[in-house]
Amino acid sequence: MIYLCDVYEDESLESAKARRKLIRTGDFKEALENFPKHLGYETAMLNALAENRDDYTGALKVLPKKLRMLFVHAYQGFIFNRALSRYIKGGFYVERLPLVGYETIPDEISEDILESEEIKQENFKINYMKDLSSKGQVRECFVPFYDFKILKTGEDELNEGKNKIIIRFSLPKGCYATCLLREFMKYGNHT
Fold first, then answer.
1. Torsion angles phi and psi, residue 162, rounded to 5
2. What are residue 44's phi and psi, to 5 degrees?
3. Residue 154 contacts by C-beta under 8 Å, 6 or more apart in sequence?
4. Which residues make Cβ contacts (< 8 Å) with residue 174, sequence separation at least 6?
5. Half-sphere exposure of 141 (CA within 13 A, CB side)
6. DSSP for residue 131
7. CA–CA gap between residue 29 and residue 39 (Å, rounded)
8. 3-state SS track over 3-28
9. In Å, what is the CA distance from 80 to each residue of 44, 84, 119, 191?
10. pLDDT grade, residue 159 (50/70/90)?
């Protein structure tokens, strides 16, 4: 229901309206008429739920496996990032932390976060959707970026009075460019 009903920033009015109506009515068949056709994944899930109202597992199974795994990996990343933030705020340096799964050994802070989220490690073993189960792994907290190059700087033609910079860099597999860019932008906002 979160995937179907949460309204996202910059979402079209039509999409937002359809999502809000589904929250109010809970009517999946009606939602099929209201949801914009470009929301293909949502439409596929609504079709499944219109056929079998209580089969949320079946509705998730209509999504591509990579997208379903993204949900699991995003949640593991959320726990990892919260744990790392707590270590940093506490003034502690930590080299590696677990991406918590059903076989990892969580550190004290990750364990505390799981408890506050009311999640158990066993929840990462999903018997009714085995392909989404995650053993977990240990991950480096800080990774180097390489092949950094400033390609272009100057005035942004699309935003008058603003400047832009175009950069190129590489990161190891499993790292997110958005996180590195966020750090660059934090620094850029202070200079």
1. -110, 155
2. -60, -45
3. 163, 164
4. 139
5. 17
6. G
7. 15
8. HHHCCCCCCCHHHHHHHHHHHHHCCH
9. 31, 6, 14, 29
10. confident
Cα gap 97→54, rounded to integer Å: 37
Tokens of 67: 């997208």
Domain boundary assignment for the chain: 2-61, 65-140, 146-188
Asked if 93 and 114 touch (Cβ cutoff 8 Å), the reply is: no
AA identity, residue 48? A
Tokens of 167: 């950069």
pLDDT digits 0-9 by tens, 99-129: 999 999 999 999 999 999 999 999 999 998 8
In the structure encoding, which two tokens stand for residue 121, read together?
A: 């490690």
Fold of the domain built from segment(s) 2-61: Hypothetical Protein Yqey; Chain: A; domain1 (1.10.1510)
